[in-house]
């Protein structure tokens, strides 16, 4: 039987098996092997995928390459994200020792073509390069390869560390990231912008973002990260560099883990759950109450991320329990707002003030309610948290829970006598906040508890306008059935109809127009004009219905000064006497911007009167 017939028979319809064997055959042919040698090799290839992977590790990969193969497999298997070909060149060639004496100038990197060949050779064809978002990344040829390595493949590659391949793997990657950060000396950092830094240091994004993540995972797996103490002693500038670099490459804190300026090693390791380092730093006499630029202490970091043993260690060392950061947040609020039940329990047992106000974040109960952590809410209530305490962006715990759509918490708070009509916060009351999110079942629950459907106040002035702006048609209908005033005035958009128009919700607009025989369309100064009969909807209302999105675009273009787009809109029949939500009239907006050319254009083409007033009573002049 010919070797290709043997291969087809062995595949038994399994594409992945065939793909793997084709790769092996290709290497045999490239190396000048005979057809007989290929037939003999195929006869030894197992039929199960897992056995094939093991066969490749044992028979295809050269034994002297095992350590480099292990390194490659760790990167592909354990990396926080797939590495690019540029990054894998660094990852495979940076020092892995913990002596931290490497220098940037000493790095010798292979060409991309060499790296591609090396990756295929080291992996036995199990790793491939793939185009992704204009980058070339490394990945396993199939998810089953990753599964195989997690289930013993990594252990097989390194018999010296049997029993903890994952923990040792993360430790390995953490050390490599640390070495890269360590070789970037402060005098190398000439240009403080992300693009320049990424160009100068291609591995910096991965190393900076993932260093402590790998360290945390390694320690969680039982591999202590005490190398960090030696590293910081050997490279004293590394921590400051890391913070500075992190804040540049993650300027918007998309990771949620960006460190603050003046963070200490105790802060960072407390947040990363590195208990061995925290203990070591405390033994060395590190200042327990030192603060970063936002006023966070080590206890804030540990509580924020829910690290129970770190919290216990810090408290046992004498950490102050109710200290605030610059935003007024306490350790208890940080733990509660992130749903860390065990940390909350420990802090309460140690005497944390359950009702301490924490600025824009309200208090611990408010934070837990907003997060949606019912168990933490119940625990705080059991410790006498004030269910009607006011403060924070959403004023109280009930409003925070309702805004997030957490119905079981809303019910729990109501059962504990939360006031359904308390006024305050961005949305003025709980019903308005709930309607804005379109949480109809919670709206019904609040109405059943006698929430006032026509209470005025907040960004949208009333509940109906909030629901209309969000386009929540069924909620709008529910509110109308409960006698919500369809002509109520005020708020960012004037009334419910204009709010629906600005949101581009035609069906909601039509629903509002059906409610009564008269509907008031408001100017921005909220004086009702022109009551229209349903049977004869005004030209202005019909314009809102037909061209809601165009109105939004027009006002946005006026606000940005896009003269070409403004002229095009006017040529296509755009009206200037239709207000644009918080942008008010186009003429007011352009006058406020001081854009004489657009002001002149609008005056010439305007269908509005020059003495129209905005919601603050101001004319364009």
Automatic annotation (TrEMBL):
Gene3D superfamilies: Ankyrin repeat-containing domain (1.25.40.20). Keywords: ANK repeat. PROSITE patterns: ANK_REP_REGION (PS50297), ANK_REPEAT (PS50088). Pfam families: Ank_2, WHD_GPIID. Residues 70-155 form the GPI inositol-deacylase winged helix domain. GO terms for molecular function: PDZ domain binding; protein kinase regulator activity. It comes from the Eukaryota. The keyword Thylakoid does not apply. ANK repeats lie at residues 294-326, 327-359, 360-392, 393-425. This is GPI inositol-deacylase winged helix domain-containing protein. It comes from Botrytis paeoniae.
């Amino acid at each position: 039987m010919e070797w290709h017939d043997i291969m087809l028979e062995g595949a038994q319809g399994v594409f992945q098996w065939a793909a793997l064997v084709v790769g092996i055959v290709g290497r045999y042919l490239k190396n000048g092997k005979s057809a007989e040698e290929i037939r003999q090799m195929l006869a030894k290839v197992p039929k199960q995928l897992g056995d094939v992977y093991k066969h490749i590790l044992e028979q295809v990969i050269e034994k002297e390459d095992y350590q480099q193969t292990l390194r490659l497999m760790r990167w592909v298997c354990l990396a926080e994200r797939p590495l690019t070909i540029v990054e894998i060149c660094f990852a495979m060639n940076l020092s892995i020792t913990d002596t931290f004496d490497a220098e940037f100038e000493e790095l010798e990197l292979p060409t991309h073509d060499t790296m591609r060949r090396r990756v295929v050779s080291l992996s036995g064809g199990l790793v491939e390069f793939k185009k992704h978002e204009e980058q070339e990344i490394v990945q396993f040829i199939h998810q089953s390869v990753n599964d195989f390595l997690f289930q013993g493949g990594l252990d097989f590659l390194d018999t010296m560390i049997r029993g903890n391949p994952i923990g040792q793997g993360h430790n390995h990657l953490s050390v490599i990231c640390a070495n890269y950060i360590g070789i970037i000396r402060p005098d190398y950092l000439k240009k403080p912008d992300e693009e320049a830094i990424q160009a100068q240091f291609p591995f910096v994004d991965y190393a900076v973002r993932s260093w402590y993540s790998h360290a945390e995972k390694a320690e969680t797996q039982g591999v202590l990260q005490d190398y960090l103490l030696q590293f910081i002693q050997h490279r004293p500038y590394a921590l400051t560099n890391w913070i500075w670099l992190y804040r540049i490459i993650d300027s918007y804190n998309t990771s949620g883990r960006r460190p603050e300026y003046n963070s200490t090693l105790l802060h960072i390791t407390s947040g990363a759950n590195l208990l061995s380092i925290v203990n070591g730093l405390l033994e060395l006499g590190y200042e327990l109450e030192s603060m970063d630029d936002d006023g966070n202490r080590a206890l804030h970091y540990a509580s924020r991320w829910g690290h129970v043993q770190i919290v216990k260690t810090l408290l046992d060392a004498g950490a102050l329990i109710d200290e605030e950061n610059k935003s007024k947040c306490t350790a208890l609020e940080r733990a509660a707002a992130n749903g860390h039940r065990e940390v909350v329990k420990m802090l309460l047992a140690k005497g944390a003030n359950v009702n301490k106000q924490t600025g824009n974040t309200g208090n611990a109960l408010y934070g837990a309610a907003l997060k949606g952590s019912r168990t933490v809410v119940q625990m705080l209530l059991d410790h006498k948290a004030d269910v009607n305490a006011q403060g924070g962006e959403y004023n109280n715990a009930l409003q925070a829970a309702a805004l997030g759509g957490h119905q079981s918490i809303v019910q729990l708070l109501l059962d504990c006598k939360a006031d359904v009509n308390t006024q305050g916060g961005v949305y003025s009351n709980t019903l308005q906040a709930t309607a804005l999110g379109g949480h109809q079942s919670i709206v019904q629950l609040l109405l059943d508890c006698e929430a006032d459907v026509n209470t005025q106040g907040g960004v949208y002035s009333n509940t109906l306008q909030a629901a209309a702006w969000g386009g929540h048609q069924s909620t709008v209908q529910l509110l109308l059935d409960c006698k919500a005033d369809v002509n109520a005035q005020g708020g960012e958009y004037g009334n419910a109809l204009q709010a629906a128009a600005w949101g581009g919700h035609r069906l909601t607009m039509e629903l509002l127009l059906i409610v009564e025989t008269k509907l008031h369309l408001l100017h921005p100064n909220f004086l009702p004009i022109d009551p229209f009969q349903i049977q004869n909807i005004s030209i202005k209302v019909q314009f809102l219905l037909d061209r809601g999105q165009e109105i939004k675009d027009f006002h946005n273009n006026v606000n940005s000064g896009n003269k070409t787009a403004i002229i095009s809109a006017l040529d296509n029949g755009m009206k200037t006497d239709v207000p644009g939500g918080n942008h008010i009239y186009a003429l007011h907006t352009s006058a406020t911007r001081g854009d004489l050319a657009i002001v002149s254009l609008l005056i010439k083409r305007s269908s509005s009167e020059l003495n129209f007033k905005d919601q603050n009573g101001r004319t364009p002049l």
